[in-house]
């Protein structure tokens, strides 16, 4: 079956512009997660959705970052007024309610802020 | 203290070698434990869960010591294709996974 998909795969943007990153989870997966991975670094948790609600937003680094999820399906991560330190790979993962902890990752969006 | 700590390596081993990775976690309330694998410039993929009694999957053996808050992964008979970064991952109820920064393994012929 189809895995987690993310778009765009690559995004180059100018400092100060807004960007939207999209994630389509595995069909039927109720939990959805966003992570960030800077070059040579580990994964940094950003936000977690259970259904359409976000019980854990603790990882969002600033109020420039926001995320939403609709229809228990697609999610968008929005970064406003991008900064160079936002450059990273943004990874989305999903998991089923039955096995919340077995997360399946998408290929990521590589964001470069110039 | 970081929540999940791993020796970053790299571990450079020849084919056929046995190699072990260790990981410690700081939160005693952690409930679930995993090893993920990440190939260069690719997304992480679940390698195996780690159960209290220890578990094996082919050449891979995972062990958990709750008292010491320590997790290990043993790879026997290393293959070239095992070259990757191995991520130690823990979870507390209701929160997302917490990833270690990973241990890099390079298997050479």
Compact description:
Chain A has 114 residues and is an all-beta fold. Chain A has strands at residues 5-7, 10-13, 19-24, 31-37, 43-50, 53-56, 65-69, 75-79, 88-95, 104-105, 109-113.
* Beta-strand content estimate of chain A: over 45%
Order of helices and strands of chain B: EEEEEEEEEEE
Largest interface, counted by CB within 8 Å of the partner chain's CB: A-B, 20 and 19 residues
- Helical content of chain A (DSSP H or I, runs of 4+): under 10%
Description of the molecule:
The complex is a heterodimer of chains A (114) and B (109). With 114 residues, chain A is an all-beta fold. In chain A, 0% of the residues lie in helices and 50% in strands. Chain A has strands spanning 5-7, 10-13, 19-24, 31-37, 43-50, 53-56, 65-69, 75-79, 88-95, 104-105, 109-113. In chain A, strand 5 (43-50) and strand 6 form a beta hairpin. The model of chain A has no long low-confidence stretch (mean pLDDT 91). With 109 residues, chain B is an all-beta fold. Chain B has no helices and eleven strands. In chain B, the strands form two sheets. In chain B, strands 2, 4, 5, 9, 10 and 11 form a six-stranded mixed β-sheet that branches. In chain B, strands 1-3-8-7-6 form a five-stranded antiparallel β-sheet, with no helix packed on it. Chain B is globular. Chain B starts with a strand and ends with a strand. The mean pLDDT of chain B is 92. Classes of the chains: A mainly beta (114), B mainly beta (109).
